[in-house]
């Protein structure tokens, strides 16, 4: 295998193509977006990822990586196109379909075809194989067809592409072994071989596991609020048990994977996947809960103004895809709140509510709401901020701020998952030592 064609030059495809190019393969990277192709040809890399620009440029300058708007004949084809979710919670597979169809005219007996995009179980052996069959070749006999899902973390993609373990699921064992020779040339982690549907399950189960565990933490937060106790202290103590590791409640689950992938399992097997669907719905309902909580705090305030801190889907990244912070902000606006949002990691947002400094966000605001727990927010000075505000109310949806300090600065502090009654009880027993104090 010398020549590899990578289809879809996004978060996974571009790093994969450039890693292969720097490992001596002759790589053609294909994307349907002309603008993207032109940018790459001119040395501009559209994805912010440590080391990626250097690696792409090294690939292009060496002649090992060329970019094009159409595939070409190759020994191996790797498909890394997006598989988002449709409004009916089913996988949007049209990008996979058109990528598969685009290589059909170039397929030769003995070609390796890898589907890396995350897909519902059964897709590789079903729809994907059926399209490849349009070449007149038999995907089980004449071609080597596998699913090998990407599992890298944005921010560490180049490193994890090489160091992570990988699963390769083949339509046949021979196909999995063939793909192993390609990946073993640059992967340093373990490579596990399986059938295609198992590999599809592996990827979906990993992200579903996390989603269900976050949902459990969120449900604990709702229960604690109903009971008038503090979930954060309860979690901290429960997590001292050697076999318990409860995750963190929050305003919802964002990003392009965890909020999406569990639905692919539900789509494939709706009957038995009740827990998965229910967890997904609970996490999706969290922004609404946050808005209701804030609404209660704003009761009686005319023309309420809210300063929203954090826009990205999780701490210390600049990625706003599926961010629950955006959902909360949109709903707050719909309920008549004026929102100004500040995020030190978001620089060029087209959203008109985004302001460039924390001061702009809090001036004349009635309430600060923490939506993303960036480390930078720990250093905020609530005394200064409080001076600029109309009222001093804080709603912390991540338990991410030093609350005593905000209280000392005169803020009325509310925390997601804290029913507040424990605070009263604690004050009456000042000598009691509590975890996390
Ligand atoms: N979150 C919570 N509470 C927690 C942990 C996370 O509310 O205790 C929220 C975050 O704030 C965020 C969302 O969940 O909104 C997802 O964040 P994350 O850090 O859990 O995951 P991602 O989406 O950044 O990356 C995941 C990873 N998968 C797993 O950890 C199983 C990553 O390894 C995958 O490669 C990636 O999805 C992917 O591409 O599938």
Descriptive tags:
437 residues, alpha/beta, Rossmann fold, 2 domains, 8-stranded mixed β-sheet, 5-stranded parallel β-sheet, binds ligand SAJ
Write a structural description.
The chain is 40% helix and 13% strand. It starts with a strand and ends in a 9-residue tail after the last helix. Helix 8 (196-227) runs parallel beside helix 11. With 437 residues, it is of the alpha/beta class. The chain has helices at residues 13-22, 34-41, 52-62, 94-103, 124-133, 157-163, 173-183, 196-227, 231-238, 261-268, 274-297, 324-334, 358-362, 382-388, 403-408, 421-428, and strands at residues 3-7, 26-30, 65-68, 76-79, 112-115, 144-147, 166-170, 191-195, 305-309, 338-342, 367-370, 393-396, 412-415. The chain binds ligand SAJ. Residues 151-153, 206-207, 210, 214, 247-248, 250, 253-255, 257-258, 313-314 line the site of ligand SAJ.
